[in-house]
Amino acid sequence: MCGFAGFYQPRPSGPNSVDLVRRMADAIAYRGPDDSGTWTDGGLTLGHRRLSVLDLSPAGHQPMHSENGRHVIVFNGEIYNHRALRQTLESKGEAPAWRGTSDTETLLASFAAWGIAATLRACVGMFALAVWDRRSKVLTLARDRLGEKPLYWGWQRDTLLFGSELAALKVHPAFENRINRNALTLLLRHSYIPAPYSVYEGIHKLPAGHLLTLHLPEGARPQADPEPYWSFNEAVAEGLRHPFEGSDEQAIDALEHQLSASIRDQMLSDVPLGAFLSGGIDSSTTVALMQCQSARPIKTFTVGLDHGTYDEASHARAVACHLGTDHTELRIQPRDALDVIPKLPGIYTEPLAADSQIPIFLISHLARQSVTVVLSGDGGDELFGGYNRYLTARKVWRAMQRLPRYARTALAALLRALPPATWDRLFTVARPLLPGALRIAIPGTKAQKLANVLPLSEEKAYFLRLCSHWPDPALVVRDATEPKTLLTGAGEGPITDRFEHWMMAMDAQTFLPEEVLAKVDRAAMANSLETRVPMLDHRVVELAWRMPLELKIRHGTGKWLLRQVLYRHVPKALVERPKMGFGIPIDSWLRGPLKDWAESLLTEHSLKAGGYFHPAPIRKRWEEHLSGQYNRQYQLWPVLMFQAWLAEQTR
Question: pTM here?
Answer without folding.
Answer: 0.92
